[in-house]
Amino acid sequence: MKLDEFFVTGDPLILGSQIAIGLTMVGLVVLITYLKKWKWLWNEWFTTVDHKKIGIMYIIAGVLMFFRGGVDGLMMKAQTSRPNMEFLDAQHYDEVFTTHGVVMILFMAMPLLIGIINVVMPLQIGARDVAFPKLNALSFWTFFVGAMLFNISFVIGGSPDAGWTSYFPLAGSEFSPDVGNNYYAIALQIAGVGTLASGINFIVTILKMRAPGMKLMKMPMFSWTTLVTSVLIVAAFPIFTVALALMTLDRIFGAHFFTVAGGGDPMLWLNLFWLWGHPEVYIVVLPAFGMFSEVIATFSRKNLFGYTAMVVSIVAIAFLSMLVWVHHFYTMGNSAAVNSVFSITTMMIAIPTGVKIFNWLFTMRKGRIKFTNAMLWALAFIPNFTIGGVTGVMLAMAAADYQYHNTLFLVAHFHYTLIPGVVFAVFAGLYYWWPKMFGFKLNEKIGKWHFWLFVIGFNLTFMPMFFVGLDGMSRRMYTYSESTGWGPLLGISAVGSLVLAAGFAALVYNIYWSFRYASRDIGGDPWDARTLEWATASPVQEYNFAITPQVTDHDEFWLMKKQGRNTIKKEDVKDIHMPSNSAIPIILSVAMGIVGFFLVFEWVTLAAIFSVLIIGGLIANSFDYDDGYHIPAKKVWETEQKWRGDL
Amino acid sequence: MKKHFPMNHVIGFLLSIALTLFALFIAFETDFTTNVKLWIIGAFAIFQALVQLIMFMHMTEGKAKVANIINISYSVFLAVVIVAGSIWILTTGHAAH
Amino acid sequence: MASQTSTPLEYSTKQNEMNILGFWIFLGAEIVLFSTLFATYFVLEQSYAGGPTQSDLFILKDVLIETFLLLTSSFTMGLAIHQMRGNNKNAMLFWTVATLLLGLGFLYYEINEFNHYIHEGLTLQTSAFGSAFLTLLGTHGVHVALGIGWVIALIIQVVRRGITAVTARKFFIVSLYWHFLDVVWIFIFTFVYLKGLM
Predict the structure, then answer these.
(1) Among residues of chain A, what percentage have pLDDT more than 70?
(2) Residues 6+ apart with CB under 8 A from B66
(3) What confidence tier does C2 reach under pLDDT thresholds 50, 70, 90?
(4) What whole-number distance in Å separates Cα of residue A119 and Cα of residue A51?
(5) Which residue, C143, C172, C180, is CA-closest to C21?
(6) I need a labelling partner for A158 at 20 to 30 A (CA). Which of A99, A260, A378, B33 fits?
(7) How many C-beta atoms surround the C-beta of residue C195 within 10 A?
(8) pLDDT in tens, B61-97
(9) How far is the C-alpha of C122 from the C-alpha of A248, rounded, in Å?
(10) Measured between alpha carbons, how far is C118 from A84 in angstroms, rounded to an integer?
(11) How far is it, in rounded angstroms, from Cα A373 to Cα A363?
């Protein structure tokens, strides 16, 4: 392969990105070397097994990917802002909508949620860490390596261009012979390994490491949603693993799972993809529901209304979500029986979701609501998400779906579920838990700019898409003529996307401003909150809890404060066992990335040779008997004195 | 010495062999229709899997036995959904015409 | 079991309990993984694209040898755990090595089987049936090969360290994995081989 085939050439936008990426990388290396921070980075972050630091790394990566996916989105909006626009050509537009979808779902939504789960969930259940700290680090690094592998596609080799769903036969090697779709198959495979491991890790953590007295039905709602989401991850991700492996075999090794030529069935890909893909939607939305539950309860200054109904509806949503996947391809020509059954199961999901909406509303009823930024996001979520939910019921009707299918109406629908359902939740969660992670609050005033720009921009961007969709515009059209009459609405949509971007910029500015100027003197519990994570310092001390809390009821921390139990005695403090840092996760993940890169370019021999690295890593891990270390009680006591002040 | 004799394992092993041989017999030496045969040997397979899970893998011991049973039952439910669902969806409707 | 009045060593610490539970959940994921491969096989099992079919390919005798090798290895693995719980290191190692040899025998026959199919003109590229069948079988085979490597690594650790809470836990987990591969094989045997030959 020649060098000019290896690097993508001939597009000024991409050339600009290549130069920018090159300069940034050189700049970073120089900066880190100049500041002599390599050792610090390696010891404190790259090899860490601390759930809080891993969570923070997830969140940083997620925000970066949000930027990347957002730029893709802006490019699409620019291209369709006017009829016959010539900003992107068809090929480039295809690549951009593909990477936008993949990045936003798998490399933005997933890491941001898993990141917040990582930081918060162990604290919320009063645990020292997750069940398998080293595995947790492996989860992060496989995700990160997968994300990086996917992201270099647009400068090296070329981006995938068959949509985030990568339907066959288009995604097969006959119609997409370039390496782009190999990136899709292999980068997502590597990231998927980490996600599955996270799922198992969180389930065991929640089942086995809750503080004494915390029965499952006394567990905070965010931890409940984490548990159910993790179950869904374990249920769904292996399907995706297989689907991607079969895609790889088809594309690289000439198998015929999905290619018609050898008797394969392209619809089998759709079937497997959505068997994973639909639960995936709930995997990202359930933790978001949990975050809203915490935020709404805290800032309404009441306990959550209908706790049991809430738990039952989460479980019901998870159960049903495995039984609805066909609604993504009603139009493939299924028998009437198939479409009817899946139509009914799909509509049934609206019932438990509706229960949750009412529970949130009743939690606020007669509450003394504080309109903090976190609460604003939760309030904006309810009406916006309801629009997404109601249009979802429209789409659920198989007969009507023949009209809506693959139009911008659908695109508007899922942006109305995923943006309020996930992005608003992540913002709410970030504003709410930011002090726990970094020891200062984000600025409320800049936060209002962030909020209003984003929410208004969001509605301006996506509301017009319902109407052009109903008017017949199909998704993924890169251009349209003036006679369609879509110009004005899509123009408004494009302006909206700029407002949306301004909202994101306000968040970034807020982070910068607060990092420099915000007060560090906020104590452990700046929001007067209700759950156990607030019983720790801000930022949380490395061992989490000096003494494992005894739980008596829901909203345990609220009770502790009321009953004056929020103190510790020196004689109760014991040595705390900690796991050692490990370099195995990052090395193993990088090895997977190298093998993956060779596979993308179909250099099978090289990939096979370098697989030895992965096997070596696994063996090294098997023989690793490191038993961790202890923080002496004296040191724990000193740390506690420092942040509690009154001991 | 009875305490040290792994009776459970021996019974499990003998059951596995017997079930395998029964399945062979049903498959090749009887006159049932293919469908009926598949149901019978399928039932044998499930029974044999249970033998492995309970007698060899000790699924029902330890503190997490309830979690284990829920976990495996849920996975089996998923397996049925995936297998039966895929066959139903991909071999009826458009494929039948 | 009458002999298990006290807690076995592999459950003796909280971390051990968590590892074992985590592995059970991983096995749940493996069930989903294999059922996806089975679903793929069932959808594509009659798409021969002019290539060989099940009855052209399967040889009952070889399949039975593989089946009994794997069944027996599952039994000997069970015996190894039984001896581990009795704290008999040597007997435990004996049955583990027996398991290993039976597993290698299985792999040997399976590789022969693959050779036979290539000889008969069935490869991954021949037909959708070929792709689905060889991938299902190959995934199981790769699992067995990984299991063999894993068992070897653990034999070394048990020889070096003896039966401790940690090695007992690791060994119990590898035994779960091994028995699980037998469970998967039962279904391959029933729904691929027997169904294909009926």
Answers:
(1) 99
(2) none
(3) very low
(4) 6
(5) C172
(6) A260
(7) 18
(8) 877 889 999 999 999 999 999 999 999 999 887 655 4
(9) 19
(10) 54
(11) 18
Positive or negative, the CA dihedral A501, A505, A506, A511 is positive
| CA–centroid distance for A521 within its chain | 31
Selected residue of B52, B68, B94 to mutate for chain C interface (largest C Cβ count, 10 A): B52
CA distance A601 to A180: 9
CB contact under 8 A, C31 and B57: no
**Which candidate from A265, A275, A335 shows the least CB-CB separation from B93?**
A335
Sign of CA dihedral A412, A417, A422, A424: positive
At residue C140, what is the residue type? Answer: H
The domains of chain B are located at 1-61, 62-97
Structural tokens at position C57: 């390919």
The alpha carbon of residue A634 is apart from the nearest alpha carbon of chain C, in Å, by 25
Looking at chain B, the whole-number percentage of residues with pLDDT higher than 90 is 56
Question: Does the domain at residues C9-43+76-197 carry the CATH identifier 1.20.120.80?
Answer: yes
Is the Cβ–Cβ distance between A84 and A479 less than 8 Å? yes
CA distance A129 to A118: 9
The ipTM of this complex is 0.94
Give, to the nearest 10 degrees, the angle between helix C165-188 and helix C89-119: 30
* Alpha carbons A647 and A513: distance in angstroms, whole number: 33
Considering only alpha carbons, which residue of chain A is nearest residue B66?
A207
Flag whether pLDDT at A103 surpasses 80.
yes
Tell me, yes or no, if A369 comes closer than 8 A to chain B by beta carbon: no
**Smallest Cα–Cα separation from A142: which of A108, A186, A100?**
A186
> Mind telling me how many Å the CA of B24 is from chain C's nearest CA?
8
Q: Which residues of C touch A242 (CB under 8 A)?
A: 33, 36-37, 40
**Neighbour subunits, A (≥3 Cβ pairs < 8 A):** B, C
Closest-CA distance of chain B to residue A260, Å: 13
Burial class for A48, CB neighbours closer than 10 Å (0-12, 13-18, 19+) = buried
Phi-psi region of A373 (alpha: psi -120 to 50; beta: other; left: phi over 0): alpha
Q: Taking Cα atoms as reference points, which of A566, A438, A613, A601 lies closest to residue A5?
A: A601
In the block, tokens 């792709």 appear at: C131
Contact A215, A187 (CB under 8 A): no
Task: State how far the Cα of C117 lies from the Cα of C62, in Å rounded to an integer.
Answer: 13
Residue with the two structure tokens 């060593």: C9
* Contact predicate A192/A107, CB 8 Å: no
Q: List chain C domain ranges.
A: 9-43+76-197
Name which of A56, A273, A268, B17 is nearest C132 in CA terms. Answer: A268
